[in-house]
Design brief:
Strand 2 and strand 3 form a beta hairpin. It is built from 8 helices and 7 strands. It has 2 domains: 70 residues, Arc Repressor Mutant, subunit A, CATH 1.10.10; 109 residues, no CATH class. With 188 residues, it is α+β, with helices and mostly antiparallel strands. The model has no long low-confidence stretch (mean pLDDT 93). A 4-stranded mixed sheet has the order 4-7-6-5. Strands 1-3-2 form a 3-stranded antiparallel sheet. Helices cover 44% and strands 15% of the residues.
């Protein structure tokens, strides 16, 4: 993921609790220059998603930021390993180690405590291939994990953005369920 995407994720994740951010603080948190933070905020300001003052910016439209990131995300570029695993998805998920973070459908299922529809692919953020490389249609994907990711599943915003970039017919069911549970409830 690009540096600006890390900033967008942070703004979305932390913005549900406090919609005001200091650009200098974000730069320090990630070890980025303030110009990188400015570059991440500039297009959000241009579309009216944030309001910028001399030191701070405030989220005006959470959903615009989410959709902006979703349309700029290139999930395919972050896939570092893929293979076919001849097991049901729940068994595949059960074999994932503790250093790996569930993404996409697996993350959404955990966040929603529900399965809006069946799915047949597992996306995780991690480093080590858990299964041998087998030719065939991929159903297990490892995405490059960044050092700021925490927890067992991706955040709501990361999950939404990743699902947005998948072409499976069932991705829409998960997107709608996430939107209904998290965006509408939080006034986004």
């Amino acid at each position: 993921m690009k540096k600006i995407e890390l900033i967008w994720r942070e703004v979305l994740d932390a913005g549900l609790k406090n919609p005001i951010f200091e650009q200098k603080h974000l730069a320090q948190k990630f070890g980025f220059s303030t110009s990188t933070v400015f570059a991440a905020i500039k297009p959000l300001r241009a579309i009216g998603a944030v309001e910028v003052t001399s030191r701070n910016f405030k989220i005006i439209n959470f959903e615009k930021i989410l959709m902006f990131w979703a349309t700029h995300r290139n999930l395919q570029k972050d896939i570092i390993y893929q293979t076919h695993v001849d097991l049901p998805v729940f068994e595949i998920e059960g074999l994932v180690d503790n250093k790996t973070i569930y993404g996409a459908y697996s993350a959404a299922r955990n966040l929603l405590n529900d399965t809006p529809s069946d799915y047949d692919k597992v996306y995780v953020y991690g480093e080590t291939p858990r299964f041998p490389k087998i030719k065939g249609v991929g159903n297990f994907f490892i995405l490059k994990k960044d050092k700021f990711m925490q927890g067992k599943t991706t955040s709501v915003s990361q999950t939404f953005v990743d699902l947005w970039n998948l072409t499976d017919w069932f991705a829409k069911d998960y997107l709608e369920a996430l939107k209904a549970k998290f965006l509408v409830r939080n006034g986004a």
